Every structure is written in structure tokens, then in C-alpha cells.
Amino acid sequence: ELPPSEFMQVADSTWLVLSVVSNGREPPGCQATGVTKIARSVIAPLAEHHVSVLMLSTYQTDFILVRERDLPVVIHTLAGEFDIYKEEGGECVPVTCDDVSNGFLKPKPPASPTLHPVQSPQTRFCVLTVAPDTLPAIATMLIDVLFYSHTPPWDAAAGSQDLDSITFFSFSLIEGYISIVMDADTQKRFPSDLLLTSSTGELWRMVRIGGQPLGFDECGIVAQIAEPLAAADISAYYISTFNFDHALVPEEGIAEVIQLLQQRQESGR
């Protein structure tokens, strides 16, 4: 329904959403959450089969977007590890490899993925949710933050490697569930009794992946961040955007995360 505009860019591909539901078979002591929880079972296998993904963490769960044309490869890759279902008329129907075998092409071995630079601004972030019935009470403030506050110019130096701070605000509404990521200073502008967070009220630091816009054809970007964090049992809240990828990690773990990713950069040279 959006009218064409010279100011709006639309990616060529149509994307489908995968949601991963735990079946309770995780090994005892597994504490990682977010993208690192599914790094080995989903993200890494898809990268190995040259499937590009967009990752969207929300307050409630995580979603993986894959290009519609890659669906046969996705199903063949994940069918051995997961029971896969598709929605038809509101019902969940089992999917088998036979359902997509006509379109399956064995992927070529992927080239070594590009190791993108990472930036870690000093900004501290909050991951929040809000009850849908209280949304009207903060709607005006949300509009102000989304459209009028701290809007950087289009020609801002997106490739700067020495960011002290970063402007980032994410709002998602999925099946009635609301997720918000905002910096700690912006949070102070909202009524504290309407924004809900975990009981520990932890703050998060961000790692932004890419010195320039990443595009949509490359694979392995999420995997090269998620796998080392998963190996270190570090939770990460991951958001892919049109231009860059962003991983949020608990503030107290940012030093270890930067060290792990620097080691990844050095080993890939």
C-alpha cells in the first residue's frame, strides 16, 4: 500500500520468516539466549549452505528471515535437526523435503566470508516491552523519538570507525507483542511505569557490524558474530537492518565480546 517514492529503497528479494521454537532438548547448563542460542543449530548450517539471512531479535523470541527463493535449501539443511511446519489458513502443517524437492539445487561451496569490521559505541541501551493497551499513552513520545529526535543527515559519515555514540531506536510489533530498543537517555523521557524490562533491568552495549552498508547477498555475517559468542556462552540480541547488523550484549560482557571479535579478525587475516 506504500506509494512509490524516490526516497524509499526496496530490496529485490521477498523474504519469509522462520521462528525457532525450543523443544526442551537443550543440554543442561546452556545459558545463552538470543541469536547465540540458535547459532550452532540454525545460523551456522545456513551459512555453510550459502543462505543469506536477516536476523531479528524481539523481547519475546527471535526470527530469521530467509529469501523465498532459498526456501528449498533451508528446508533440506534444517530438516535433519528440526521438525518444520508452515502456516496454511492459520494452521501449522508439517513440511517435508519432498514438498520442495523439485526446486532444490545443491549449493556450491561458499567462498570464505568477508570479515567485516565492528564498532562498539559507548552508548548504553535498554531492551523493553510495553503492554499493547498502554501503547496510546506513549504514542506521541514514540512518534517524536522515531521521526523528529536526533535524526542524522543522509550524508552522515556512516563508515566512521571511532563512534563514541550511535543513534539507534528499534520498534517492532509482531502478533500483538511489542519490542523496543532505545538508549538509556531516551528511556528517561518515557513514563517508567509503562515500559517493562527484565527483573534485573540490565543495560546492553552494541556491536555494529560493517564499515559500510552490507547489502543482502552475502552470507555468514550473522554466523561470524554469533558463533564465537555462543562458544563463550554470551547472550546476544541481534537486529539486522537495511544497512547494517547490530548485536547487543550485556554491558558487563562487552570487553570479552570485543576481545573475541578482535581475535576473529586477526585469525582471518
UniProtKB/TrEMBL annotation:
<comment type="function">
    <text>Functions as an intracellular arginine sensor within the amino acid-sensing branch of the TORC1 signaling pathway. As a homodimer or a heterodimer with CASTOR2, binds and inhibits the GATOR subcomplex GATOR2 and thereby mTORC1. Binding of arginine to CASTOR1 allosterically disrupts the interaction of CASTOR1-containing dimers with GATOR2 which can in turn activate mTORC1 and the TORC1 signaling pathway.</text>
</comment>
<dbReference type="Pfam" id="PF21389">
    <property type="entry name" value="CASTOR1_ACT-like"/>
</dbReference>
<dbReference type="InterPro" id="IPR027795">
    <property type="entry name" value="CASTOR_ACT_dom"/>
</dbReference>
<dbReference type="GO" id="GO:0042802">
    <property type="term" value="F:identical protein binding"/>
</dbReference>
<dbReference type="GO" id="GO:0005829">
    <property type="term" value="C:cytosol"/>
</dbReference>
<dbReference type="Pfam" id="PF13840">
    <property type="entry name" value="ACT_7"/>
</dbReference>
<feature type="domain" description="CASTOR ACT">
    <location>
        <begin position="11"/>
        <end position="78"/>
    </location>
</feature>
<comment type="similarity">
    <text>Belongs to the GATS family.</text>
</comment>
<dbReference type="InterPro" id="IPR026249">
    <property type="entry name" value="CASTOR_fam"/>
</dbReference>
<dbReference type="GO" id="GO:1904262">
    <property type="term" value="P:negative regulation of TORC1 signaling"/>
</dbReference>
<feature type="domain" description="Cytosolic arginine sensor for mTORC1 subunit 1/2 ACT-like">
    <location>
        <begin position="116"/>
        <end position="199"/>
    </location>
</feature>
<dbReference type="InterPro" id="IPR051719">
    <property type="entry name" value="CASTOR_mTORC1"/>
</dbReference>
<dbReference type="GO" id="GO:0034618">
    <property type="term" value="F:arginine binding"/>
</dbReference>
<protein>
    <recommendedName>
        <fullName>Cytosolic arginine sensor for mTORC1 subunit 1</fullName>
    </recommendedName>
</protein>
<keyword id="KW-0832">Ubl conjugation</keyword>
<feature type="domain" description="CASTOR ACT">
    <location>
        <begin position="201"/>
        <end position="262"/>
    </location>
</feature>
<dbReference type="InterPro" id="IPR049479">
    <property type="entry name" value="CASTOR1_ACT-like"/>
</dbReference>
<dbReference type="InterPro" id="IPR045865">
    <property type="entry name" value="ACT-like_dom_sf"/>
</dbReference>
<comment type="subunit">
    <text>Forms homodimers and heterodimers with CASTOR2. Interacts with the GATOR2 complex which is composed of MIOS, SEC13, SEH1L, WDR24 and WDR59; the interaction is negatively regulated by arginine. Interacts with TM4SF5; the interaction is positively regulated by leucine and is negatively regulated by arginine.</text>
</comment>
<keyword id="KW-0963">Cytoplasm</keyword>
<keyword id="KW-0597">Phosphoprotein</keyword>
